Amino acid sequence: MKSRSFAGLVILVIMALSMFASAAFAAEDDTKAWQDERLQWWNEARFGLFIHWGIYAVPAGTYKGKQIGGLGEWIMNSAKIPVAEYAKYAAQFNPVKFNAEEWVKMAKDAGMKYIVITAKHHDGFAMFPSKVSPFNIYDATPFKRDPLRELSRACRAQGMKLSFYYSQAQDWHHAGGAAAGGHWDKAQDGSMDKYLTEIAAPQVGEILANYGPRVPGVLWWDTPMDMTKERAEILLPQLKLKPFAITNNRLGGGYAGDFDTPEQTIPAAGNKHRAWETCMTMNDTWGYKSYDTNWKSTTTLVRNLVDIASKGGNYLLNVGPTAKGEFPKESVKRLKEIGQWMEKNGKAIHGTTASPFANLSFNGRCTRRGDSLYVHVFEWPREGVKLSGLVTPIGSATFLNDGSKAEYTRAGDAEGAPILTIMPPAHSDPIDTVVELILAGPLEVAPAAGEKAK
Ligand code: H79
């Protein structure tokens, strides 16, 4: 008996040591193959919904009768609202119109494959019941519900990947959290290491552990202010709870994560070596502002998605719900219209990879799925669009919007490079008419004129 319990103790010690080792060396243990595997669904998705929702939706951009410039979710910082005063917005946050099934359905109908929601933004307010801070939607509001749980159920039922945004460094409520521009209230002063250990790390543990085996798909860090390698390593061990969770590049401390995050901008070119995702607002704010009316058109939003897909990236498009729990009607309208385009043309987005052409001579883009090409035409020249350099013969050419066959001719230019001319359709789509080219063999593209010299 005695030797058995000794052996048990040895096993326990070895287990504890090996857990510690993998916590300390998790990043080094990672491999490119494993990263590719966890990025697979994300790369196929191409289109996701960002949701910025918190108690900043109560002031909705106005403080003491004044419209505060900048981003809605930054109002506490921009207006230098004292911590205790800002915290009072929680008592007014009662989003009784919130309906997780409807939110998920709106994303799904728009052709989105994943949702990233703010579990905690820079204001420090947790949108889930947290055991480590009462400044959360369960303990501090009359709402008494957990939107993350309701969303995780709705997402599971509707086949949507749920992901969480967590502001790990900036926290304007809890002592020791970072604040852009510096602290403005004594209550914010304190040790950042203590904040990371006692608030951020356990809360990251809560959102990683509590919402189902596949949630979160992505853990989306933001603004790595004052994050050193040592501070990042306070948070990193939590990731062992969800080895398949993808992370972005904003943890800080030199950790690159799995993908890059251009914000409010689309890169001029893609990146063959790194996954990337452009996040963007539909108007000029992430968190709801009652008077922001600078909405992008549906045409712009769809063409942005196409532009991004043609460069091999993802589009994470934002909605800022109100304090009642509703998407602004302008966002609902745009999601619906995007969905009408996606219903017919989604196969030219989902699961596609970047364009094989260095440049195009018309206003449009190209996406690819193996040996199929999707030619996206934003504006049709009367004489048709000319695609130069496609060597492979065409098996079929079909307009995705009505299933009709496209008329095309093939010829060579003066230097013998192949040129495919596709004639305009009977029914063009003012947003983007897509021609599906199923090739008669493996895709082969002649180098563009500019590339030949290289
Ligand atoms: O969550 C969203 C933003 O709140 C967050 N990232 C996205 C996804 C973000 N944090 N910082 N920034 C974006 C950029 C910084 C903007 C600022 Fe400002 C300029 C902070 C202070 C000056 C805008 C103007 C916000 C306050 C005043």
**Number of distinct helices:** 11
CATH architecture descriptor name of the largest domain: Alpha-Beta Barrel
The coarse silhouette is elongated
> CATH fold name of the largest domain, please?
TIM Barrel
What is the N-to-C succession of helices and strands? HHEEEHHHEHEHEHEEEHEHEEEEEEEH
Spatial strand arrangement across the major sheet: 7-6-5-4-1-10-9-8
Bound molecules: ligand H79
- Nearest-integer average pLDDT: 93
User: Approximately how much beta-strand content do the residues carry?
Assistant: 15-25%
Number of strands: 17
Task: Measure the end-to-end span.
Answer: 75 Å
Question: How would a textbook summarize the main sheet?
Answer: 8 strands, parallel
Residue stretches low in confidence (pLDDT < 50, at least 5 long) are 10-25
Structural class: alpha/beta
Considering DSSP H and I runs of 4 or more, what fraction of the residues is helical? 25-40%
Assign the CATH class of the largest domain: Alpha Beta
List the domain count as a whole number. 2
